[in-house]
Structures are given as C-alpha cells and as structure tokens.
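Practice set, problem 2.
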Amino acid sequence: MTETLKALGDHIAGARGDAVIKRDIALDELVFAVRRDAAHDFISFLKSDEKCACQQLMNLSGADYPDRAERFDVVYNLLSLTHNHRIRVVVMAGEDQAVDSVTDLYSAAGWYEREVWDLYGVPFKKHPDMRRILTDYGFEGHPLRKDFPLTGFVELRYDEEKQRIVQEPVVLTQDYRNFDFVSPWEGMTTVQLPGDEKAAKQKVGAK
C-alpha cells in the first residue's frame, strides 16, 4: 500500500507540483498541503484524473492553530471508489482570508463549508449560500475558535412578561461570590463549619 501511495503521490506532484507545499503518507492516506489560491484546481485534478479518480468528498472540516499567522486549516478528505484510496488535502487560511468553494465539484461541500464558516469563520468564495448552519441567527463569533469563551457572549431565556425568547449578554454571577468557607467547593478542612458541633455532640453521647 505504501509503495502504491508513494507512486500516486509522485504522479500528483509531477502533474500539479506548483500547488503543493508539502506531501506525506499518514495512516495509509496521502496527505497534501496545498496553496490556498491553487486549492480548487488541485482538488479538481484529483477528481478528474484517471489515476486519482476521487469521486467522493467524504467530509470537509476545520482546525484552529491560533499561534500561526494563517491560523486555520481547511481539511478535505477525498475517496476514490475506483482505486480504493483516500487523499487528504489541507489548505491554510488566515483570519478573513477566503478559500475557493468546491461546491461546483462536490455538491456535498455545500453544508460542510457552511459549517466551517459558522464554527471557525473561514469564508468560501463563490459559495451559493454562505450563511450560518448550526448557530442561531444573530449569533456572535465562531464557537470552535480557540479564543472563543466557553460561556459564549449571549444567553437565551424565556421571558414570561414578553411571552417570547429573549437574548441577553452572559452574566457570570459566580464571579461575585462572597467567600465565607460555607460553599462546598472551597475545600476547607481546617475551618469549623456550621453544623460541625452536632457531630461532636453525637460522639459524646455515644460514650
């Protein structure tokens, strides 16, 4: 399998080496990191070339590496039913840098690209319907970014007076607790808490 994939990798690099930044074999899959501006044509080649024949886009996902200048990875996992091999394509993008949509090559990419936009904020050029798909209308931010707060920015609740759902900024009331050593999460074992005297009386009675 490794020799077959290596030969296929040489074939792809020979035909579209101008687009390739890096290539590797991992878990019996060919992995290509390609230039963002050449990604669409590269994936089109993988679909149409007889030796590649990647007829299916199995999934498309994102990843966030905030320490990098181009912090996002857009990952395409392609499958060839003809040759029974898989090829992974990785495209890097910075904030507000758009990636070309592949919806014209794979119709399944439509919802996948919307998910990556919704959760990571990576836009796709020439997408026919670039809008959120998992979060609500008016949602602020992109929740799978590493710098997105775990609490989010807003919360929803049902308002009895208005008889509808309202959206409000998150209020973390626990930030304003008074530390009186009564709360169970304080973990204080050396301080006598209210009620400890009852345990002492029981021990006296038992004698």
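Problem 2, part (b): a different protein.
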Amino acid sequence: MAVNLQKGQKVSLKKTNGGTLSNLMVGLGWDAAKPEGGFFKRLFGNVDQIDCDASVFVCQGGKFVDRDDLVYFGNLKHRSGAIQHMGDNLTGEGEGDDEQIFVKLDDIPARYDKLIFVVNIYQAVERKQHFGMIKNAYIRIVDADTHEELCRFNLTEDYTDMLSMIAGEVYRYKDEWKFNAVGSGTRDTGLNDLAKRFK
C-alpha cells in the first residue's frame, strides 16, 4: 500500500518488506484544467496545449555545481548512467504518469547526494500559462523491480501564477536514501533560473 505524503514529509526509500531499494521510478503526472466557455478561453489562453517538462538536478554536497548534471528532455541520460529520463510528453494528455525518470540508486557515484525533481511549463510567459491552469499534479516513487508504488505526493496547493514547481527530492542521508515531498511553486521561467536556486 503506497504512502500518501503531506508537504514537507520525509520517508525512507525501502522495499515494502523492509529490504534495500536499488531501482526506482519517479513518475510525474498532471492534467490541463479545461475552462468552459469562450470568455474563459480568452482569459486563460489555450490550456489544452500546456507543455510541462520534468527535469532532475543531480547535486553534489546538496548543490547543483555542473551543467552536465542536469537530466531533462535535452539530456535524457546522466553521464553516470544511473538516471534515465524516458522522454518528453508535450500535452499531459492521458491516464497515468506523463513523464517517468528511472534511477539506479546503487549506481549513483558517491559524490552525488541529492536529486531534485522539478517541473516547469515550456514557454510559460510567451503562452501566458501558469500552474494554476493545471490539476491533478503528483509525484510518485515506484519500486522499478516490482512495479509497486511506494509513496505518492499530490500537489494540491493553489499554484496560480507559478511557472515552475519543485516537486520533491531524493537524497542520501547516512548511507540511506530518502524522499522529501517539497511541493514549492516558483516564478522561475526555466531551468536556468531554477538552477540558481540550487547552487
């Protein structure tokens, strides 16, 4: 049974039987809220075409220090081979995860101690879009070996006017991997701005 997390809650990443978790999948999902009527369409723009992008900042000493440690739609695999982004979803349409990132915890080099999972809206300013136009957003952690969902964090706050989202963190603490449900919205327009927060 998956644990439903609250904002700020931290949990140890273990198999449901208490064993060591080696391979995990981080799934992120969202839907465009569809306003009714022509007035709302003019007010909100074309919400059917919100392109959210999930990315991972791979940190050393809790800090993002090297551009090559960013995993996103333009760099789908981390240079260590331990983190694999499965590709970009342009619309958020359909059931289930919109983007998935696989992590081999045992293969992450010791110098890396934190993975920060973010979601931003592509061309949010130009398209006049923000996270208030998105519903049903979540981040979940799945045991990639058994396909069992271990924990889920539903992003239920009002994120109106927010352009990016820090969804959650997987981090190393005393030789153990944990997950932190962050759920913070920001007005950062893209990955370059987000990166400055983690340096």
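Answer key, part (b): Residues 44 and 129 are 7 Å apart (CA to CA). The first helix runs from residue 37 to 44.
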